[in-house]
């Protein structure tokens, strides 16, 4: 599955173990950590549900045990733009 290859690559690049990139949210579904960024002094994560690749979540990582989904639409747009900018920079470095 492509999603798992991406997750495993992210895990290797960031020296992580499985417990570090699989997250179970309050909906009792497992999500894979695709990427994380720092934006405006806070850490944000991009998650995709393991069973349904179309279900993604952008959330703030409050602490090791708390993930808060972004509900503010302006903040969400800004965070998604920052993820896209970071990804574009990473692709540029890789080529």
Features:
95 residues, alpha+beta, 40% helix
| Total count of helical runs of at least 4 residues | 3
Q: Name the poorly predicted regions.
A: 1-9
Shape summary: globular
Q: Percent range for helical residues?
A: 40-55%
Beta strand count:
5
Query: What spatial order of strands do you see in the largest sheet?
Result: 1-2-3-4-5
Terminal residue distance:
24 Å
Short description:
Helices cover 40% and strands 35% of the residues. The protein is of the alpha+beta class. The chain has one domain.
Describe this structure in words.
- With 95 residues, the chain is an alpha+beta fold.
- The chain has one domain (2-94).
- It has helices at residues 2-13, 18-21, 73-94, and strands at 22-24, 30-39, 42-49, 56-63, 66-69.
- It is globular and about 35 Å long.
- Residues 1-9 have low confidence and may be disordered.
Layout of secondary structure:
Layout: H1 2-13, H2 18-21, E1 22-24, E2 30-39, E3 42-49, E4 56-63, E5 66-69, H3 73-94
Antiparallel strand pairs: 1-2, 2-3, 3-4, 4-5
């Amino acid at each position: 599955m492509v999603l798992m290859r991406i997750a495993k690559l992210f895990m290797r690049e960031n020296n992580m173990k499985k417990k570090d990139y699989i997250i179970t949210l309050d909906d009792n579904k497992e999500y894979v950590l695709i990427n994380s960024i720092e934006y405006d002094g806070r850490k944000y994560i991009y998650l995709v549900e393991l069973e349904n690749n179309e279900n993604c979540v952008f959330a703030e990582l409050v602490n090791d045990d708390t993930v808060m989904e972004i509900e503010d639409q302006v903040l969400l747009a800004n965070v998604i733009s920052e993820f896209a900018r970071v990804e574009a920079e990473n692709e540029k470095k890789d080529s």
